[in-house]
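Think of the structure tokens as a kind of shorthand, similar to the way a musician reads notation: each symbol stands for something richer, in this case the local conformation of the backbone. In the example below we present two proteins back to back. Begin with the first one, reading the sequence and then the tokens, and try to describe in your own words what changes along the chain.
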Amino acid sequence: QAISAQGGPGPSVETGDSASCCGRGVPGHGASDRVPSCAMERAYLREFNALGLQLRPQAAKLVTEFLSVCEDPQSMVENIVEFTKGYLRSRQGAVDPFIDVDIIRNVLECMQARAQGNGLEGAEEATMLRGAEALELGDGVSVYDATRDVLPYEYRRATKDWAPAHEQPGVLAPPDTKAKIYADRYHLLLQRMLMEGRLVAEEEASASGLLPGQRVLTKVESLQGNPGDKITFGLISRSSDEKDENGKRRWVLEDLHKVYPITLLEEATAHLITDGCFVLADGRLEGDRFVVRHLDVPAAVPRLASLQKDLAPRQMFGGSLTDEQLNLLQEVEPANPDGFYVTLAEVHLDSIKVLEKLTDLFNGYEQFGPPTAYVFMGSFSSTGFRPNEQGIKAYRDGFERLKFLMRGLSNHVRVGTRFIFIAGPTDPGAQLLPRMPLPGYLTSDLAKEIPNVIFATNPCRVRHFSRELVFFRHDVLRLLRRHEVLPMRDLSTGAAVSLEHAQTEMVRFILDQAHLVPLPLEQSNILWAYDHTLRLYPLPDAVFVGGVSRPFDTEYQECKFCSVGPFHRDSEFYAYHPVKGVVEPCDVPDRAG
């Protein structure tokens, strides 16, 4: 269902005395033709200039004509200025100081619609006046390319806000980019932690004191000459040169300016903590070594808290939609509750069993209602891609078979179902993150012959109205426990943790670290300048990680998480309804007989 041009309210404006003015019409649309004096015009323009707006001559004339018929022009001009700022901010994300006549005309029409409609009806009419922009939203679904559509953002501590980074990413990143990766992650998690208010930076605590329940957070660089028990925050990793008595590299804790070797008094933990992650360490400095009594990971916060308290821009997820467009998507979302996503991993197109299961899957949804999208995550061959003539032919043949299965799906075409393909570890292409889409010549030009086929990057980000979904093909869940700082144990018995506990901890750890691959860089093959495409802040509504691990789903901090298991093994997949917030584990039953 395409989004209509109607939606919710625009920027608010007082409607007391303004109604007596707005209700009379906008100049040029049946308003009074009385010509204002030059002195009156200069007085109105000074009000705009004082608030940082400069009107073009025709815009100034229009405003002056409008104000000349108002009972209280001084109050009304303030309303117009604030409404104009809100109008520009919602449409462009910023306030342009130079205002032309078209903008003023739209602003006055919106104010008139609000006043005449006395609330909701006027707001809807005002939104209709902005319908040209809303019509560009299509069916409310956007699929983002991680390398082009997801821009890096930085937190500016001086102004306490998030802003797009000045330097745009590139494949050939300068050497200092590696250090910047950790600096950006450090600042992101530190800001998220301090936002909650339970921990207070030491310099702020010294200046204003602590509230009940608050504790002081000391920087690693400030531990020297600062006696007593401390809570500090930094990156835990293996030392590059110092080894312990067993010949293993020692653990160190570091922030942006200082590194300390650490001694861990704990022998086990109930939580997952890995090499190369950011931790909270509770202990004290003894000589040149920080002795850690307790180690933990700073917890994630719900998405809504990040948006409201941290004022994180929604554009951090990806795309170039304005706040006005995103608000409109959120307003029309309840009228579109039935969209859902079918997610599969390890779809081997050279397997007869897989092709039969896909046939049954397509036919079932063709009959009972196609999804908004299928998300197919590789690998797409059971033997892996071989870069020779036979390997290329075999790989292309798999997509030729899939193309044959998809040609008769008329209901899918009618509703605009998307078919999204994400490369897996044995598919062709460089084993780097983010991964580039599969090329057309290796996929038998599937996208040219079947409507709505998208070969996406890995990870792939999808915006479904106001909901944010992340799809990632990686065996990160299998790798995490190989890099444990402390072994995970049931602290009450000392025994190994259950499978369910381990799964929950892996999900918690990924979301707490706000990163899809919270491992040492040498283990993750990340393109340094594109590390931001793997971050999970603010938390999305749902994360799907496809791999060889056993399928399971859970929820943490209001974020749905699904580990999507191999489709070729048990024909299992997930159906996710974003608006309803429902995750359904599904499978394709065997054929009778």
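Once you have a description of the first chain, move to the second and do the same.
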Amino acid sequence: QFQSSMLWIRPGHAHAHFLWRHLAWRELTLSVCHFSRQSSRVPMSNAMKDWNVDYINQYFSKVHEDKVICQVTEKKGRILVSNRSYKKGEVIFDERPLHIVTEAESNDAFKLVQKLCKKDPESFEQDALWYWAALCSLTSEDMGEGPKKGHLPKVEPDTQRKILCLYHEPITEASGAAKTLVEEFRLSTSVIKVDELIRAWILNCFDHSEKPQGYVSYFGASFMSHSCHPNAVWHFAEGTQAEDTFVLHARRDIEPGDEICISYLPEQGLLHSAAARKRDLQSSKSFICTCERCGPDAAEPDRCRGFRCPKCFAGAVFHPGPLKGLTLATATCGKCGELVGPEDGKRLLAAEADLQTRLNRLDTQVEKKTVSRILKESDVQHLLRMVGDSAAGSVGPQHWLCDRLWAHLADLYDQTGREEDACRMLRLREKYMREAYTSLHGELAWTLEAEADMLCKHAGLGSAHLRLSGLDDAAVRRLALQAAALLEEATQLLRLLFGGLHSYFAALDRKRERLRIYLETGTWPKLPAKRKRASS
């Protein structure tokens, strides 16, 4: 019951943080792994009381030394609970893949699956690789006569049992796809088992490779639930000899008895409003989030959805959306204490909807061309007038849509030579992130890095950059010191999230080290020359 939550992939261009992650991450996380644990959907019927918990915990005892245990709850079904204390940044556990399946274009059995998907798309609703993964999870006893052409790889019974543990909702009638696969591949196993294997893969796998396309499943990692305020974060073990190892870090301090949760959303998604997060999770993972930031027991209003007070025009009001039965009309200003009221509430929501429509359109447009070719100065001024810190604006500035806007404007100003404005947009983003999400956050680290890169570019630091006119050596040093402080904070964040071997940390640490050398010597260090290949 796990989804590939965050596909921690970085954009190549340091200042395109929002655009790349919002589009690419959104597409990847919605298409790669389709998780469907619903926080209020899983009843503990008599037929499902066991849930293989003893078997699962035997695995945790043997492989993970009882660091975590699996428990069953009425609302979520199986969850993962810590058995000890962890400090933020500490590794909770790491885990090797349970099973890896890739496309097999030269195997006639895989070609048959592709043919069946093309012939009967009504029954075979998913891509061929999902069904192939299920077929590659059969044991020798399941094979029967097997396919007339090609072959099916087999797994050990214990591997199959673990895969089947990942799906635990009763199937009363098998799907048409499962029935067809049993018949066409002349299997001796039941159609129900094949259907369970199909669903186990669809709901519990990660991207493993692109060419050939492959999926990987993990066992212990698959029992974590989602939270929009997660206390753990996972990544692959980059920089080691086993890079497909799953590594779980504590994102916050964890105590014995705490449920271990990760986010099924990308990092940027954690900065969206509660309403937006719930929509994304419902559409992509088929459940309604009721976590501590989204549910009726939320401790505070939505810090990602603030508006300018319509009464005093100086304070901020935050949408109480997560709180049961409350609307924006019931929100009170933090400065003057006045209620928003129904009429002003409608006006604020209309302004919010207008800004979101414009940003959605802009998101689509920048997929095809740069933002500097899309927005005219009059367009920019119109958008800025909608923000709550302008003379007439009402949305934000502590609002997730404002963060989206500033990301676009940072790119625009950088592309058009408005250096100070570009840095100002990034600083606005940083301020928003610190107030919207108080725990460790990768997006904050990358935004700090983007500002540091921009300062170094303005100072002419690096072989490809020219110093801006009007900057003397003292000014350049001041910019370098500011950039060094930003990189110091960013590297600390990424070390805690990913450890010291991961490429995200290593790339940032190299930048920090070059800047340190410059500040000590006054000379920008050259990158080490690439080694030439030895001639054969």
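Compare your description with these statements about the second chain. Residues 36 and 286 are 5 Å apart (CA to CA).
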